[in-house]
Amino acid sequence: MFRDRDHAGRQLARLLRRYEGHDTVVLGIPRGGVPVARAVAQELRVPLDIVPVRKLPIPFDPEAGFGAVSPEGAVVLNEELVRRIRIGPDEIQRIVAEVLREVQRREREYRRGREPVPLEGRTAFIVDDGLASGYTMLAAIDSALARGAGSVAVAVPCASSSAVDRVRRRASEVYCIARSDEPVFAVASFYDAFPDLTDDDVRSYLDRAARDIEERQNHN
Question: What is the CATH number of the domain that holds 126?
Answer without folding.
Answer: 3.40.50.2020
